[in-house]
Amino acid sequence: LFAGPVTFVKGVVAMSGLPPADRTEVCFAGRSNVGKSSLINALTGRKTLARASNTPGRTQEINYFALGEARYLVDLPGYGYAEAPVAIVAKWQALLKQYLAGRQTLRRAFVLIDARHGVKDVDEEILKLLDRSAVTFQAVLTKVDKINKVERAAVIEQVKGALAKHPAAYPEVVVTSSEKGEGIETLRAIIATLE
Ligand code: GDP
């Protein structure tokens, strides 16, 4: 689907470290523990690509993966660690702002939302930042295997309601389970159509 192998390119800690903006890229953001590593691994079909559960307070990197020759997948550090030091959070937010506002080839941000919790205050910050940066974002519900059909319908409504307030939001929500494989093909297909 991505015409070529999926490989790790590099971890970036400053704008100067970004690879040349020579191809389409998509980024993944989400609260820590939302299931971002699991989803990226499911999406790329690799088991050990994205390291699960980054340690809070550690230097946070923007991880670049090549999806074949034509696309980058960008794994943004998880946010919302209760115990993350203020200085680290500030540094990370500054880099994130610069990245989102300045990356010409960034086509879409996928914001991961735990299907059990819906959009929380901690998510609103990045949604506002994406609005201000004019980066189209799409919500991806994770761990949907943990909820039933009624809860699924309710959380989709909650998320759609929250998205309606954001001009940069793409209206459709992707529903996934890395555990069961649900929604993974859909997400791959969405990424493959972005030029
Ligand atoms: P990250 O911190 O966002 O990278 O989250 P991880 O991918 O490390 O996942 C956090 C926890 O949620 C781990 O215990 C995973 O096994 C679990 N998890 C992730 N995705 C799923 C899923 O689709 N279904 C279920 N049931 N658990 C999941």
From TrEMBL:
The gene is engB. InterPro entries: G_ENGB_dom, GTP-bd, GTP-bd_ribosome_bio_YsxC, P-loop_NTPase. It comes from the Bacteria. Pfam families: MMR_HSR1. Its cofactor is Mg(2+). Belongs to the TRAFAC class TrmE-Era-EngA-EngB-Septin-like GTPase superfamily. EngB GTPase family. GO terms for biological process: division septum assembly. Necessary for normal cell division and for the maintenance of normal septation. One of its GO terms (cellular component) is cytosol. GO terms for molecular function: GTP binding; metal ion binding. Keywords: Cell cycle, Cell division, GTP-binding, Magnesium, Metal-binding, Nucleotide-binding, Septation. Residues 22-195 form the EngB-type G domain. The lineage of its organism: Bacteria, Pseudomonadati, Pseudomonadota, Alphaproteobacteria, Rhodobacterales. The keyword Metal-binding applies. It comes from Tabrizicola piscis. The keyword Magnesium applies. This is Probable GTP-binding protein EngB.
